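User: Fold this one for me? It's Extracellular solute-binding protein.
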Amino acid sequence: MGQSFHEDCLDLARRALSRGGVDRRGALRALAAMGLVAAGDAVTQGAQAQGARELVIVNWGGVANEGFARHYGAPFEAANPGLKVVQNSTGPSAGRIKSMVESGSVTWDLCDSSASSSRVLGKGNLVQRIDYGVVKKSDAIDEAFTLEYGAAPYSFSSVLAYDSSKFPNGPPQSWADFWDQRRFPGTRLLRRDALAVMDAAQMALGKDPARLYPLDARACLAKLREIRRNAVFWTNGSESEQFLRTGEAVMGQIWHTRAKVLEQETNGRIKFTWNQGLLQAGIFVIPRGAPGGAATQRLLASMLANPEPQVELLKFMGNGPTNPRAAALVPAEFRRFNPTDPENARQQVILDGNWWGDHYTELNADVVDVITG
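Assistant: Here's what I get for Extracellular solute-binding protein.
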């Protein structure tokens, strides 16, 4: 699937903060989880040596260790003496979760995943159902953020960005505009992936965004063929920025975090619209057999329940809060770039992770065929 949004946020944070990597203890813990060093070495001077019980959050590396530790782990530890939340940056891909569960040697408690992956993993009996007697659905802005096999303490969006200098008569403001090559000439930019691209194509076909799913796959693929020869395709967040920065593309569908960077860097020459953005849930899953047991459900509940840490994560990494009480706490200068600000969210469509969980593999292969055909 190329670079994930999780990895992309880390890349952005490295650039913004001019730092990255993990400390020695964090690295040792990650190596221990992979069986590359002795577990005793990994926890030297750590929580287990002090008699604390560890819960392991698995992320995608770099400054996610710092962000998740400070804004998810620390509040939970303060409220739960004797429990220690540690970060593991192995990269919790669906394949790695599957291998760990099937081998019967689960060492991870909570994994940064996606809505579609949570459904696939759940259908394969590889992750636990979320206990909504512990995790509160009322702590999320929409039911799409509290799924059967995962819950989302953050969000992100795929938005339409454009070079305003190329459109003196008015910029594109919808996916229908994006597909209109007569009124809005120039090269388009899309991710080399079905997710969000097909959804945009469906809106370009005129389907009511409020009733977007199920997607008409055949019609969406035909729509994609209309612009394939006038489009370039990105595989990672940095690349999506560069296509627009250099003018190789005049408009594109990119992650909101990258759109923010471009808008600020170009003093507003490159802009973006939240209209018809694809708002997506940053889902965490619990592998079947997670050693933390019931405490893992409580950790996930804490991540959703506390709006203040979510706002701090928005400032730190660009991830949007999902707690309905968070929006009022976001400073004014960050609201423009918060995907779940009520004014911004109102203009968007929440991507249906369950539908994509059932259809992603087949449709992604079809999209790649169109792109390369």
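One thing worth pointing out: Confidence is low (pLDDT under 50) at residues 17-50.
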